[in-house]
């Protein structure tokens, strides 16, 4: 429901001016700006933590977040906001990145928490969540995609640059959905900790992937995927 025609009640158009009025109303509903979405995977964290609050960033993870923040700042873009998963590792990554982007507001959301988005195809032997997890997590992650990944609002005049700090499964699923690839293929993609994935959403709704999991700004010895 973001196509201009979907936003107009055609039954209410003036019969006398018909096509002219329709064209004017359609133009008013068309998006004008481009959205740049930067999807950041959280940095390396403590895998031994039993609860989420214990899964804090490792010393290396904190270094990775510093490097990611420095890279984002070096792009010279005017970022509008940082939306991040409410999980500890994503929140800590956001706090470090935000030091490099002073003044950019931060928003926490449960929608971007890690989970099992959809049963992967082909299946893998080392990771088999219970079926109920796909139903619970899948609905939430799909809701995150629909809520955050869309063309700009018609009222938006200038291009926007937004950062989303979340998790590998969420990012991989979002990329597949945004590019209209079979979402079941999400597990075929691999993302390093602290990596940057850049999606561009044009006013006509077309999506381009500029970078996927970029960590070329990190020294080789700092790169991990845990």
From TrEMBL:
Principal localisation: mitochondrion
GO biological process, alphabetically ordered: positive regulation of mitochondrial fission; programmed cell death
Superkingdom of origin: Eukaryota
Pfam families (UniProt xref): His_Phos_1
Entry's localization field: Mitochondrion outer membrane
Keywords: Hydrolase, Membrane, Mitochondrion, Mitochondrion outer membrane, Necrosis
One MF annotation (Gene Ontology) recorded for this entry: protein serine/threonine phosphatase activity
Entry EC number(s): 3.1.3.16
EC class (word): hydrolase
Catalysed transformations (reactions): O-phospho-L-threonyl-[protein] + H2O = L-threonyl-[protein] + phosphate; O-phospho-L-seryl-[protein] + H2O = L-seryl-[protein] + phosphate
GO CC annotations on file: mitochondrial outer membrane
Record-stated family: Belongs to the phosphoglycerate mutase family. BPG-dependent PGAM subfamily.
Protein name, UniProt field: Serine/threonine-protein phosphatase PGAM5, mitochondrial
Organism: Picathartes gymnocephalus (White-necked rockfowl)
Higher taxonomy: Eukaryota, Metazoa, Chordata, Craniata, Vertebrata
Gene that produces this protein: Pgam5
